[in-house]
Amino acid sequence: MRLSSILNGAHFGNLAKVHGIVTYKLSPFEQRAFAGAISNGVPNMVRRFRSNIFIVAPPFIVGYLIYDLTERKHTALLRKNPADYENDQ
């Protein structure tokens, strides 16, 4: 049995009849998708950045400092000690 025979030609959004509920839709062509994007969006983005910077940044700074210290120590350990080779000819 095919699925189309069960649905009787109804599309997925129209499978049930809902009574007593009024819905309103606005056409996508009538909406303003970027209404207030500059006047409201940019200040909101700055506010959200300022509120989260002290929560997010410290772990990254500590992680970078640990990484940098480890890399410096690794390169220092790879070097040969010149005092071991003073008497070589």
Automatic annotation (TrEMBL):
Keywords, in A-Z order: Electron transport, Membrane, Mitochondrion, Mitochondrion inner membrane, Respiratory chain, Transmembrane, Transmembrane helix, Transport
Q: Would the keyword DNA-binding turn up in this protein's UniProt record? A: no
Show the Pfam families listed in the entry.
Answer: UcrQ
Q: Where in the cell is it found?
A: Mitochondrion inner membrane
Q: Which membrane topology describes this protein? A: Single-pass membrane protein
Q: Which InterPro entries match?
A: Cyt_bc1_su8, Cyt_bc1_su8_sf
Q: Name one GO cellular component term.
A: respiratory chain complex III
At the top level, the lineage of the source is: Eukaryota
GO biological process terms on file = mitochondrial electron transport, ubiquinol to cytochrome c
Instruction: Name the family the entry cites.
Output: Belongs to the UQCRQ/QCR8 family.
User: What is the protein name stated in its UniProt record?
Assistant: Cytochrome b-c1 complex subunit 8
**Which species is this UniProt entry from?**
Drosophila madeirensis
